[in-house]
Amino acid sequence: NYSPTLHLSLSQAVMARHIRFDGLQVHSFNSTAGNGGGIKFQVGFIPGEYHVTNSVIKRTLEQQGDGILLESYAGAEFVAVNNIIYDFYYGIAMASTATNYQGSDYYVYNNTINNSLNRGMHINAYGTDNFVSLKNNLVQNSGGSDYNFESTVESPDYTNNHSHDNTAPGSAAQTDIIVDFIGAISNDYRLGVADIGAKGNGVDLSA
Fold it and tell me: What is d(CA 55, CA 61) in angstroms, rounded to the nearest whole number?
C-alpha cells in the first residue's frame, strides 16, 4: 500500500540548492491526459545537489511523464540511487538540452525500471563537460527501448547495466535478459530468489 499518496511536480518549486529525497513512496496520477510525472528536478541555472534515493515511484491511469526527471543547464549534481520506478512514459530522464549548457554530473545507480510506455532510461545531455555515470541499473519491458541516448555524452561511465532488449550500455552490460521478480503482477519488483538474469551481475559500488 502507498500511504500517503503523493503527487510531486517540482518543475516550478525547486529553487533551493540542496535537496534530498530518501525513502519516499510516490503515487502519481491524474484523471485526464497530462504530464503526471513523479519527482522532477528542473533547476535551470541553479547549481547544487539534488538526490532521490531508496524510493518507490509509480504511476496509474495514463502512462504520462517521467518517473524521475533530472534537468539542469549548468553546475548541478544529480544522484538517483536504489529506486524502483514503474508505469511512466520515461522511467528516468536526464536532460541538458542545449549545446551551451554544461557542467552537470549525473550519478544513476541500482535503479529498477519496469513497464515504461516509451523509454526506461532517456539520456539527452547535450553540451560539453557533462558527466553521466550509469551503473547496475535494471530496465525491463519498455514500449520503445530500455535505454535511449539522444546525444553523445562527453564523459560517460557506464557499467553492469541490464536490459530486456539490446540497449544496455557500457562494459559488462547484460542485454536481452528476462529477470525473475518476486511478484511482477503485484508490482513487487525486487529480484526473486531464483533469478539468474541480474542477481550477482552488478559491480561493487562500496569503494
Answer: 20
CA separation (Å) from 199 to 112, 154, 192, 196, 204? 12, 30, 9, 6, 13
- Give me 35's grid cell: 504530464
Q: Are strands 84-86 and 188-191 parallel, antiparallel or unpaired?
A: unpaired
Cα-Cα-Cα-Cα dihedral sign, residues 148, 131, 134, 26 = negative
Q: What is the pLDDT of residues 58-109, one digit of tens each?
A: 987 666 788 998 887 777 889 999 999 999 999 999 887 555 556 788 999 9
Residues of the chain where predicted confidence (pLDDT) is lower than 50: 1-13
Rounded to two decimals, what is the model's pTM? Answer: 0.88
Helix (H) / strand (E) element for 28: namely strand 25-28
**What are phi and psi for residue 147, nearest 5 degrees?**
-125, 140
From 26, 22, 34, 94, select the one nearest 62 (Cα to Cα).
34
What are the two backbone dihedrals, phi and then psi, of residue 82, each rounded to the nearest 5 degrees? 60, 45
In sequence order, the β-bridge partners of residue 112 are 84, 138
Distance CA 78, CA 71 (A): 9
According to DSSP, the residues that pair with 94 across neighbouring strands are 70, 123
